[in-house]
């Protein structure tokens, strides 16, 4: 989502129905084709998928996945801030996404209430199933007040591992037939759904790991020039130079949360400490809590005094924009007027450096805008989100086995070869 809203579908994806338990995943093994069962015990392979999209003007990165038999390609918005993967269902609906050539058609593969998976969905507020044979409905609501309602299904995902092997695990996901999007926001991306990559058991990465297809590790490399790649498994994780921080130990967290972190501006303390930081590819921009946001804004504005930049209040692309003597063509023309930000984790053992190009965009009007937004204005409370803008040109690795997240500067334009 561009502009003032909280990313196009999800940031913190406050999922009201948390899906999946190990028993349900074990139950899906029986649905794997016989020719493939021999290989599911092999752990350590990886696969890489090219990405499309950009931070601005699109506001999202997407991946194409082949689902079903025969396989059909679906473009999905990648989201490490939520667990449930869902695809727009070929069913009557209201306020749905509209990729007419990318609708998923169920084929006697609805998941029923008797499945242990469905029992894991029942929470306060969710209507219990009347009979074991009822279809298993899901509902997921995101922090930006968007939501998806539908039915759980399972189907084959066609994947090519780096070693050349082809695998087709059967995975659970949502067939969404009633999507709602926040009012007064730009239209949703023209994708067929969302690829949930969070660390909960409903996530595709968790399902693949429980089926012993790959290790429970994923990563992405978002190019500032557009595109990049997404990978599953640990074969591409760098052996050196990567900065690692431990994930939050909170069992209620379904997100990739780290911290506490201290905020610095140009290597100097801002006085803001103890930040809980969530890495969320479902958010176009970076969000800081009100105190941290104000500290950054004050530092930036103080630093711009005497420089040839003026407020561009007429540009509504983002809340804070500046214009120069003539329109800017790229961030590189304006970045020298700004200083880097840093987030120091723990005792300074790991630092996330945000150069000006990791928090600025240049709009179609030629103005520079601050891609850090006030999370307090979108009900994030004390949470701080590292969005796509701040993860560009970095390989970001989510290691669920070692409970850590890492990052390293990388060339995201070069897709790793098998």
Automatic annotation (TrEMBL):
Q: Does this UniProt record's set of keywords contain Secreted? A: no
Which InterPro entries does the UniProt entry name for this protein? Answer: Aspartic_peptidase_A1 (IPR001461), Aspartic_peptidase_AS (IPR001969), PEPTIDASE_A1 (IPR033121), Peptidase_aspartic_dom_sf (IPR021109), TAXi_C (IPR032799), TAXi_N (IPR032861)
Signal sequence coordinates: 1-30
A GO biological process held by the record: proteolysis
Record keywords: Aspartyl protease, Hydrolase, Protease, Repeat, Signal
- What GO molecular function terms would the record report? aspartic-type endopeptidase activity
| Residues annotated as domain Peptidase A1 | 61-408
Q: Where is the catalytic site?
A: 79, 280
Question: Known Pfam families for this protein?
Answer: TAXi_C, TAXi_N
- Name the PANTHER family for this protein: ASPARTYL PROTEASES (PTHR13683), EUKARYOTIC ASPARTYL PROTEASE FAMILY PROTEIN (PTHR13683:SF227)
Which family is annotated? Belongs to the peptidase A1 family.
Name recorded for this polypeptide: Aspartic proteinase Asp1
Organism of origin is Eucalyptus grandis (Flooded gum)
């Amino acid at each position: 989502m561009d502009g003032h809203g909280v990313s196009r579908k999800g940031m913190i994806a406050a999922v009201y129905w948390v899906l999946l338990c190990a028993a349900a995943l074990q139950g899906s093994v029986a649905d794997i084709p016989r020719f493939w069962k021999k290989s599911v015990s092999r752990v350590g392979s990886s696969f890489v998928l090219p990405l499309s999209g950009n931070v601005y003007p699109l506001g999202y990165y997407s991946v194409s996945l082949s689902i079903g038999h025969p396989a059909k390609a679906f473009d999905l918005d990648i989201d490490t801030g939520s667990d449930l993967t869902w695809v727009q269902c070929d069913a009557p609906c209201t306020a749905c996404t509209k990729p007419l050539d990318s609708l998923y058609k169920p084929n006697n593969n609805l998941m029923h209430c008797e499945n242990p998976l469905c029992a894991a969905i029942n929470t306060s507020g969710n209507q219990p199933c009347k009979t074991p044979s009822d279809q298993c409905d899901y509902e997921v609501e995101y922090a930006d007040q968007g939501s998806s309602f539908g039915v759980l299904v399972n189907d084959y995902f066609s994947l090519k591992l780096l070693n050349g092997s082809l695998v087709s695990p059967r995975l659970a996901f949502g067939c969404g037939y009633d999507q709602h999007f926040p009012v007064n926001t730009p239209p949703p991306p023209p994708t067929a759904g969302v690829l949930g990559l969070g660390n909960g058991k409903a996530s595709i990465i968790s399902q693949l790991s429980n089926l012993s297809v790959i290790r429970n590790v994923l990563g992405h490399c978002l190019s500032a020039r557009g595109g990049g790649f997404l990978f599953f498994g640990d074969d591409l994780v760098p052996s050196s130079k990567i900065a690692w921080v431990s994930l939050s130990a909170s069992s209620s967290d379904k997100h990739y949360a780290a911290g506490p972190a201290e905020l610095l501006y140009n290597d100097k303390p801002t006085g803001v400490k103890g930040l809980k930081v969530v890495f969320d590819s479902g958010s176009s921009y970076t969000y800081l809590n009100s105190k941290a946001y104000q500290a950054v804004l004050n530092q930036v504005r103080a630093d711009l005094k005497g420089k040839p930049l003026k407020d561009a209040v007429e540009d509504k692309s983002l809340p804070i924009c500046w214009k120069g003597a003539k329109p800017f063509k790229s961030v590189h023309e304006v970045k020298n007027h700004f200083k880097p930000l840093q987030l120091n984790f723990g005792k300074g053992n790991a630092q996330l450096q945000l150069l000006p190009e990791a928090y600025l965009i240049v709009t179609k009007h030629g103005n520079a805008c601050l891609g850090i937004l006030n999370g307090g204005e979108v009900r994030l409370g004390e949470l701080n989100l590292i969005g796509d803008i701040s993860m560009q040109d970095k390989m970001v690795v989510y290691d669920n086995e070692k409970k850590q997240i890492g990052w390293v500067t990388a060339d995201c334009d070069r897709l790793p070869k098998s």
